Amino acid sequence: MFLRLRADAEFYDVCDISAEWLCAHGVRAVALDMDNTIAKYSENEPDARVKAWLRSLEDVGIRAAIVSNTRREARVSAVAGVLGIPYRLGCRKPGKKGFLWAAKTLGVRPDELLSIGDQIFTDVWGAKRAGCKAAIVYPRGMDENPLFRLRRLAERPFIALSRERYGRKVKNG
Length: 173
Ligand SMILES: [Mg+2]
Description:
By secondary structure, this protein is an alpha/beta fold. The protein has a single domain, classed as Rossmann fold (3-Layer(aba) Sandwich), CATH 3.40.50.1000. It has 6 helices and 7 strands; from the N terminus they run βαβαβαβαβαβαβ. A 7-stranded parallel β-sheet has the order 4-3-2-5-6-1-7, with helices on both faces. The longest helix has 14 residues, at 146-159. It is globular. The two termini are 24 Å apart. Bound molecules: magnesium ion. Magnesium ion binds next to loops.
């Protein structure tokens, strides 16, 4: 079980994951977590940098979808609409279904799909159960909820096991 909690890589932000790194690691599509990964919990729009980052992936043929546990459809469809990518709500990660749906929808094998998210126990664990790759990022909007910080603290030992680490130094992160 512990191996399934181990991310392939840790990055600070989703935009730090370059198309070059993805290609070098055999990634052909990405399954994006929504809350605190591509948008803060309080935001209904991804920032412009996320949009530009997705374009840089599209340029090399890497496709993307949102795989989210949330049931707030208006919010997810708004973000997915801005980004122009498919989405699935209520995925119940660490369940496998959302990741298998993304692989099928984007036309890749599960092992060619990289899950990108801010939580070990949903985004990494679920992806590994589905046979996908996984990258963990630092949560956007850590300042918005003290619980985020507590959760991150609990995840830290697992994050430290990531195979490759590109995280920027973050105080108490
Ligand atoms: Mg999240």
